[in-house]
Amino acid sequence: MSPSQPVGAPVREVQVLPFDPEWYRDAGAGHNRGVSFAPPEAQGPLRRERLRTARLYFVCDARPGGADPEPLLRAALGGGVDIVQLREKQLGRAEIERAADTFRRIADTYSALFIVNDDPDLARACDADGVHVGQDDASVEEARAVLGPQAIIGQSTHSEEQIAAADGRDIDYFAVGPVWETPTKPGRPAVGLELVSHAAEVATKPFFAIGGISPFNAAEVVTAGAQRLCVVRAIRDAPHPQVAAEALRRSFEVEGSRRGVAPGG
Fold it and tell me: N or C: which end of the chain has fewer CB within 10 A?
């Protein structure tokens, strides 16, 4: 009997509910998003501000090296990655969606953007912040129709003409590359640093340089005019992914301070 319970009072039964690990996991997975007081129409501006200040973008498989992506994502984001993209060409839809749950949860933990490659419908199903499409994938117009005005939409470009077209479309950013040839885009010729410099001169939207970039040559890309970098192997295949991400971030320091460029400006 409780010390505060009057003598003779009926004993109250306390119902103890069984522990449900599935509910606990699901309830906790989205806790960072669930506490947001921002109305739906504010999601777009918040996402675009994160994009504006972003410097480092990491594209990752659903199961990098056949493993759970969580440790790699945590290392990358802990090292300074601002955006993670789920790009998977081999696995089935169910496996990709399971990986997307992890990407979404870890991105929320680090206040990062989560982008899905190629597929606007998958991006919507996975509650991604947006989608990235190539020149031969779903059209920008289709992606915007599926995801709506609050989503982030990016597009790949490989020439001055494509940069001009992308800059006039309803997208939020574009990628320029591959700067150097890379096995992640077999058969795609390198565009060189010249196209990066051209984009820096003419673009009115944020752009990311991509393709063969590593901590050993990132400073060259920044010197050419890139204010944002996108990588795959430089982090994914690094023996210490967090160290690699930190090194890529440092490539902006000297050049950025010399030019007076604010992060994402």
Answer: N
